[in-house]
Amino acid sequence: MSLEEPQDSDQDQPAVEGRSLGDELADLLGDHVLSREEHLNAPGFVIRPDEVQDVLFKLRDEAGFDHLSCVTAEERSNRYESIYHLKKYDDPTQEASVVVPTDKDNPVSQSAEPVYRTADWHEREAYDLVGINYEGHPDMRRILLPETWKGHPLSRDYEQDRPQVVPLREHANPLEDDHSGDGGDTMFLNIGPHHPATHGVLHLKTTLDGEQVADVESDIGYLHRCEEQMCQQSTYRHQIMPYPDRWDYISAGLLNEWAYARAAEDLADIEVPEYAQIIRTMGAELCRIAAHMLAVGTFALDVYGDFTAIFMYAIRDREKTQNILEDLTGQRLMFNYFRLGGVVWDLPEPRAEFFEKIRDFLDDLPEALEEYHDLISANEILQIRTVGTGVLPEDVAKSYGATGPVARGSGIDYDLRRDDPYGYYDKLDWDVAVEDGCDNYSRLLVRLREVEESAKIIEQCVDLLEDWPEEDRTIQSNVPRTLKPEDDTEVYRAVEGAKGELGIYIRSDGTDKPGRFKIRSPCFSNLQTLPEMSQGEYVPDLIASLGSLDIVLGEVDR
Amino acid sequence: MGTLLLQSQTQTPLVDTIAGLLGLDGLLGAVVGGLLGAFLIANVMLVTTAVAGPWAKRKITASFTDRIAVNRIGPFGLLIIVADAVRLMSKELIVPDGVDRPAWDLAPIILPFSALMGFAVIPMGSGVHLADPEAGLVYAFAVASIASLGLVMAGYSSNNKYSLLGGLRSVAQNIAYEIPLIVTAASVVIFTGSLQMSEIVAVQAEPLVTVAGITIPQWFAFVNPFAFVLFLAANLAEVGRNPFDTPEAPTEIVGGYQTEYSSIYFVLFYLGEFIHIFLGGALIATLFLGGPAGPGPEALGFVWFTIKIWAVFLFTQWCRSAVPRVRIDQLIDIGWKGMLVLSFANLVLTAIIVGVIV
Amino acid sequence: MIGILKGMATTLKHAMDGQTFTVEYPDVAPEVSPRFRGVHKFSQERCIWCRQCENVCPNDTIQIVQDDQRNGEQYNLHIGQCIYCRLCEEVCPVDAILLTQNFEFTADTKNEFVYNKEQLKNVPWYKDIDPLNSRNPDRGAWIGEGEGEVDYQ
C-alpha cells in the first residue's frame, strides 16, 4: 500500500513531495472527515461522534492502523473531545489521530470497542475522569474511581473541594453482590486488593468453577493518585519531571522521564545534545535491567511460591544497577535526572571509576543470567507450569494494544526503540527479543533476553562515552527558564518503557503548564488482556499470568 | 498412650528405665513411666521444632538467598526463639465471624497432636523408644494421617473461600500421596518381614557389603535407592513442602487452611507442620537410614538420629529454595499416574527379588 | 529432572560460598553516593530570600514567610512531604539550600517533620560528605559563582 512510505515523524507533517499520509487518509475517509487538524506527531481528522466505528474500521482494515495506542478525552471550552491515537504495529512512525468532538450538553460518542478491544478500558477511563458517554460500549462504568463518586474530576465544572459523601446505604456492603455465584456451580472469589501475588493493590473479581477460572474482572484504581492532574498543575520546565519516576516506580524511572522529555521536547522544539542522548540511553537501559530483574524475580516468586532464592538473586543484581544509577543520578528510585534538553549532571567524577563499575556489572551479568536460566527457565517444573499457560495469541494481543515484553512474547515484533527511534538507539547495535510462544514462558524468556540486549546497549554507550572528546560534553542545550509552547499545540509521543509503550499526550494552552496531560500507561493496556489469558485456566496459572504481565499498579492507576 | 503401651507386651526401654529409676514396677510403673516418657519425647520434639521454626529455617533460607538473617538477639540470634514465642503468643486471637466453632478450635490442636503421636513408636536410639508395638509402622502412618482431618476441619470451618480451597487441596493431595508412601514403605516391610520398628532397625544393622575394611550396613536407602527416592518425594508431598506445598500456596490461596488463624492457633499450626516434617524425617531415618545407627558407641544413637531427621529437614528447605510449586492438577496427576504406578512397580520388584533371592 | 537438579545445585552453591549481600545497617553505615539527595540543609546567612525554591517546588514543601520589607522571617520545609527532587537546590542562585547525604530522620508525628530554618541548619552532614564539592563540576551550568566560603555550620 502506498501508505507505507517512510515518513519523518520528527517534523510537523511534511507535505513535501507527493502526498502526505494525512492527504492519503483524508481521501480514504472521504466525507467522514469534517475538518483536519495537525498534531505534531500525526494528522488529525475531526469526525462525527456517530461515525467513530465506521472511520476506525476503515482505518484499521484499509489503512492498516491496527494499534489503538491511546484514547485521550478532554473537556474544552465549548465541547468534549475524544482523541484516538492510532498507530501501526508494523511501523509506529505512521500515526493518525481521530478527533471526535461531542456536544457539551450531551456528550455521547460512539464507542470504539467493537474495533479495538483496548478501547474498553480507555473509554471507561474517559467516562470516569472526563464524563464522556460512549454509546455501544459493553460496560460503561467507572474504572478508577469508586462507583459512588460524584462528578468527573477532569471536567471543567468539577468542584475540587466538595467532599465526596458516600451514604452508608451505598457503602454498607461493597461485597454484597459478590454472592452472585451462590446456588450455581461457580464460586466467587476476591483475589486482592490485599493478596500476596497481585503486585500491589489490584482486585481481581474471579468466578471459579472448581479451581478453574470461569471469569475474571480486574478492579483497578486503588492507587489512583491523579498523576495527570498533578502534571497539568506543574510547569513544563521543572516541576513535571520528578513525577514520571512515580508512575512506574519499580526503578523504571528514567524510562518514564524519557517519555515526558520526548513529548515535551517535541512540543517546545528543543534539541538534545548527542552526548546527553548517550547518557540518557545508558541510564534508561540500566533502568530497564533493574525493572526486568524485578519482573523476573517476582514472577519466580509467584510460580515458586515461597520466598525463593531466585527472587533474592534478582534483587541483588537489581541492587547493583541501582548503585550505578545512584552514582549517576543521586537517587535509587526517584531519579529526576532528565531535564528538558538533556540531563542534569554529567557522569560522576572520577569517570574512570564509574565506567569501571558499570563494566564490572556487565562482566558479571552473563554469569548471573546463566544462573537465572539454571534456576528458572531450565527447570522442568517451571516449564510444565508456564509453557502453554496464559496464552495470548498475536491478534488478541494487538487488539488489546499490548506492548512491551507482553507483545514481544506473543510474537509481535514491536519495539519503539527500533521502530520509532529516539535517543541514541538507532546508532547502536542490538536486537529486539521476540518469542512466539505467546505463553507465560515466552514472556519470561523475552525479559531475560532483553536484559542481555540492554547490557549490549550499555556496553556500547560506555565505549562511546569513554572516548567522547572533553570539550564536547554538553549535557544540556540552552533551554529558557520558562517554557510557554504555542497555544493549542498537540503532541502524542511514546517511548519504550520497561513494560511497553509509554505515551504522553500534551496539549498546550499557551501558559507554562500543560492544558491536558494524558499518560498512556503500558500496564493499563496489558492488564486488560488478563481475562483473555486466564479464562479456563487454574487459579495458579491466573497468578502466573498476572506475574508475567509485570504490572505496576502505580502505572495502571496513575 | 498408656493403654496402648499396656497392650503391647514388647520391650519399651524408655518406659522401663523411667519406671526403674522411680522404683516402680508393674502396672503403676508402666503408666507413670509411659506418661513421663511421652512427656519427655514430646518436649524434645517441641524444642526441636522451636529451634527449627523461628531460627534454623530463617538461617537456612538466608544462606540460600545470600543473606544474614537473625543475628542480633543472643548468640547467632538464637534468642529470637524466645522473642518470637512471646510475640506470637501476645498477639490477639482473632475469631472471624461465622466460623464453625468446635471444629475451628479443634483443628489447630489435632495437627501437632497427630504428628507428636507418631513419635511414640520411633526408636530414637540411646534407649529413647516409648513403645514398640508389633504394628508400629502402621500405627505411625495412621496417626500421621489424622493431620489431614485437621486440615480439612480448618479449611471447612474457617468460613473463608481460600481456606476451603486449601482444605480441599490438602485432602486431595494427602490421599494421592499417602498411598504411594505406604506402598513404598511396604517394600521395606517385605525385606524385614516385620512391621515392628525395632525389628526394621535391627535388620538394617546387618552388613550389606564390606569394601576395604569398611562395612556398609544394610540400610534400605543403599539396598533399594529407588524406593528411598520415591519415599522422599512422596514424603515431601505428605508434609506439604515444595514442590508440593499447594495446600498452603501463599501466592495463590494466601495460606490456604491457615488463612484465618492467628496468635496461638497459628503457632499450633506452624508447630504441627514442623513436627510433621520431623516425623517424616524420623520415618525416613527409621525405614531407610538405619534409624539411630551410626559410627561410634551405641549411646550416640540419639545424636545420629537427630542428625538424620535434621538432614531431612534441611532437604525440605533446600527444595523450597529451588523447586517451583506444581499446579494442583499436575500434583494429582503426578501422584496418581506417576508415584502410585512407580511405587507398585517397586513393590512388585522388591517382592520378586525377596521371593527369588532371599 | 536435570533442570531441577541444576537449580538445586545453584542454590546450594550460594549457600556454601557463604557470601552475603546484606549491609548490616545500623552497625555499618551504608555507602552513599556523593550525589545522593537526602535531608536539606539551609543557610540563612547565604539566603537572599528570592523565593525561587518555593516557586519551583513541585509539591509545596517549602514555605517562606517574609515581613513587609521582604526580609526573611521563616523558612519552613516539610521533609516528610518532600519528594527529594533537588529542584530547590538547582534553582538556588547562592547555594543557600543543599540536599545532604543524610537519609536518616525519624519523628513520632508527621508534624515534627516540618523543619524550620534552625532545624534545617543543624542537619548533620553524612560521613562528612559535602555535596557541593561532589556536585560542583556542573553547577556552573546552572548558577553563577557563589560569593565566598560556604559555611553551613
UniProtKB/TrEMBL annotation, chain A:
It catalyses: a quinone + NADH + 5 H(+)(in) = a quinol + NAD(+) + 4 H(+)(out). It is found in: Cell membrane. Residues 46-162 form the NADH:ubiquinone oxidoreductase 30kDa subunit domain. Residues 308-558 form the NADH-quinone oxidoreductase subunit D domain. It holds the Pfam family Complex1_30kDa. Gene3D superfamilies: Cytochrome-c3 Hydrogenase, chain B, NADH:ubiquinone oxidoreductase, 30kDa subunit. SUPFAM superfamilies: HydB/Nqo4-like, Nqo5-like. One of its GO terms (molecular function) is NADH dehydrogenase (ubiquinone) activity. Signal peptide: none annotated. Keywords: Cell membrane, Membrane, Multifunctional enzyme, NAD, Transport. Residues 1-20 are annotated as: Disordered. NDH-1 is composed of 13 different subunits. Subunits NuoB, CD, E, F, and G constitute the peripheral sector of the complex. NCBIfam families: PRK06075.1. This is NADH-quinone oxidoreductase subunit C/D. It comes from Halogranum rubrum. The lineage of its organism: Archaea, Methanobacteriati, Methanobacteriota, Stenosarchaea group, Halobacteria.
From TrEMBL, chain B:
It is found in: Membrane. The chain crosses the membrane at residues 27-56, 68-86, 106-125, 137-155, 207-234, 264-289, 301-318, 338-357. It is a multi-pass membrane protein. Pfam families: NADHdh. Keywords: Membrane, Transmembrane, Transmembrane helix. The keyword Lipoprotein does not apply. InterPro entries: NADH_UbQ_OxRdtase_su1/FPO. Its main location: membrane. One of its GO terms (biological process) is aerobic respiration. GO terms for cellular component: membrane. The keyword Oxidoreductase does not apply. GO terms for molecular function: NADH dehydrogenase activity. HAMAP family: NDH1_NuoH. This is NADH dehydrogenase subunit H.
TrEMBL record, chain C:
Residues 38-67, 73-102 form the 4Fe-4S ferredoxin-type domain. Coiled coil: none annotated. Keywords: 4Fe-4S, Iron, Iron-sulfur, Metal-binding, Repeat. It comes from the Archaea. SUPFAM superfamilies: 4Fe-4S ferredoxins (SSF54862). GO terms for biological process: aerobic respiration. It holds the Pfam family Fer4_7. GO terms for molecular function: 4 iron, 4 sulfur cluster binding; metal ion binding; NADH dehydrogenase activity. One of its GO terms (cellular component) is membrane. NCBIfam families: NuoI. This is NADH-quinone oxidoreductase, chain i. It comes from Halogranum salarium B-1.
